[in-house]
Amino acid sequence: MTEWDIKKLRILRTLADRGTVTATAGALHMTPSAVSQQLTNLGRQLGVPLLEAQGRRVRLTDAAHLVLRHAEAVFAQLERADAELAGYLSGEVGEVRIGAFSTAVPALVVPAVAALRRTRPGVEVRVRETEAAESYELLSAGAVDLALSLAAHAPTARDPRFTRVTLLEDPLDVALPPDHPLAAAPDLRLAELSGDRWIYGGSGPWSEITRSACEAAGFVPEQAHSASGWSAILAMVEAGMGVALVPRMVTERASGIAVRVLADDRPARHVIAATRSGAESAPALAPVLAALRDAANQRTAAPSAKAP
Question: Cβ atoms within 10 A of the Cβ of 166, count?
């Protein structure tokens, strides 16, 4: 019978995720030569070549991809076994590590942790602020147990490594300088801002979200300035340097600008939580997910953002 080595299979999966032996070694705190040796040994054990040279790099063979398809089911089952064992050993006591993007921390994670302190004091939550796109790498590598990200950054729903839960739809409001001619106009629509100068990220999903929302309204936004941090974007808006689409998680805490709800256009981003497949029912993780859902539901039920 073929020998399946779980430790070596995890190295193979990390290589598939990271793309290079050097990146894999860094993620697993190994040397590149140790990574190569472990995968060579795994290939011998399985009786198939797993790596082939591609210039100065290596690529996974078709046999390696076949092995990984079956290995994902094994990893998911091991997660379920760990969850059941944790329930037997510790009940409602445990530690959950959350990786969350910056605006989700005050809006969702902090209220969830506050509620858990009252209802599940034995569950300790450790929070790590991450870039939304980074959270799945950390989740796959086991560095966090639960990742909060945007749907625009997420792998497809068919990815067998993760179980995803949609938490909420976060509306996008338009941020205007306080003296903007349309700062108090009734029923503002994006199309009315087609001649304005816009502020948004230079690339990536947030740039795409802004462009897509404006294009759906019938125009291509003129990008006057590029920034990735909300404090920088809002400061430029307040200074009259342009307008911006801003998530409600941000605008509800903003000051010094005019914030308008786009009731007709209804642009939005979607916030999701993800765990490794099979781990979502772990005794400590399940109440954390429930608390995050409650925090999201309370936001959804809250009154709308600022409007004149």
Answer: 13
Beta carbons of 131 and 123 less than 8 angstroms apart: no
- Residue 65 to residue 52: CA distance in whole angstroms: 13
224-255 residue pLDDT tens: 999 988 899 999 999 999 999 999 999 988 89
Residues 210/224, Cβ–Cβ less than 8 Å: no
Where does residue 24 rank: exposed (0-12), middle (13-18), buried (19+ CB within 10 A)?
A: buried
pTM value is: 0.71
- CA contacts within 13 A on the Cβ side of 280: 13
Q: pLDDT for 258-302, tens place per residue?
A: 999 998 999 999 999 999 998 887 778 888 999 999 999 998 876
Asked if residue 230 lies in contact with residue 103, where contact means CB atoms within 8 angstroms, the answer is yes
Backbone angles phi, psi at 64, to 5 degrees: -65, -40
CA 68 to chain centre: 23
